[in-house]
# Entry
Amino acid sequence: MKKRLLSGIQPSGIIHIGNYFGAIKQFVDMQDSYDSYIFIADFHAITTIQNRDILSKNILDVAMDYLACGLDPNKACLFKQSDLPEVTELAWYFNCLTSMPYLERATAYKDAGMKAKDVNVGLFDYPILMAADILIQDADVVPVGSDQQQHVEYARDTAIKFNNAFGETFKLPESLIIKEVAIVPGIDGRKMSKSYGNTIPLFGTDEEIRKAVMGIVTDSKAPSDIKDPNECNIFSIHKLFLTGNALESLKKRYTDGGLGYKESKDMLYEEIISFIKPMREKREYYQNNIDEVKKILRDGGAKAKLNIKNKMELIRNKVGVNL
Ligand code: TYM
# Structure
């Protein structure tokens, strides 16, 4: 029996290379060896996007991104969260076992709460909805970037709380985080994130990608200077695209001196463009066959829903709402 894998991405903006290397690449690499459930967290996105057209477009964009990156609907079940309204029902049962101070400790909430005093209840409750996503499917592993690790721990805690209150029901999921890509840096060296405006879009136009790459922040060393690659924001992104000899010889050019930041950026731009070329072509196919994308999501939604049917009955029985 294959272990079950589950993960998702919010359709809250354009996918960037941090999402790809931190998460999507793992989904693709693992789809053969795990019973995979990969979804689009559209309920989560409503915490920040309250515009019908933007949300619907973003949902389809993430679906196309998944497919273009190599997720195969015959191997992984691809669906959108809102096709499983049961997750909100389960989140409610969990809410009633969760204290406010416990949720106040969540870093995502603390970050948002710092910026805006009028944080919505959905955002506050975000980790509990995420716990429901994970636990409802009996997931064993949850591949994510390190910013989601705390949320997977919240899911484990919540499973324990429910099991203690109503009897053994949920298994405890594990996060799966790959060290080298746990925090993909953005063009300013901080974690790449939509909210920092420091992203390189995965499916941007040539121009958008060039602009992002040329905007990578560096120090003011001259081309002839010797440079420490480990202190260079350009090099840390090269590391995502280059391996073996190619990476070693670039490293040597840094430490020998003579490689200017402009040249390093030009090289990185070329690496990114050639890396995404086949994915772009695939994405273009789906862009022209959007009904196929919608059908993939519908079929995936039906499968994911069937999967949780018995579990939801069991949960309702345990809670006492099934008469
Ligand atoms: P989201 O949409 O913010 O991010 C999607 C995935 O991309 C990873 N990621 C990164 N990894 C490495 N370096 C970065 N700079 C970087 N930026 C983003 C994230 O860690 C994540 O894995 N709450 C989730 C969506 C969600 C979910 C779930 C995930 C909802 N329910 C259940 C797993 C299981 C989120 O907002 O991810």
The first helix runs from residue 17 to 30. Residues 6-10, 18-19, 22-23, 41, 44, 130, 133-134, 142, 144-145, 147-148, 151, 181, 183-184, 191-193 surround tryptophanyl-5'AMP (CB under 6 Å). The CA atoms of residues 145 and 182 lie 5 Å apart.
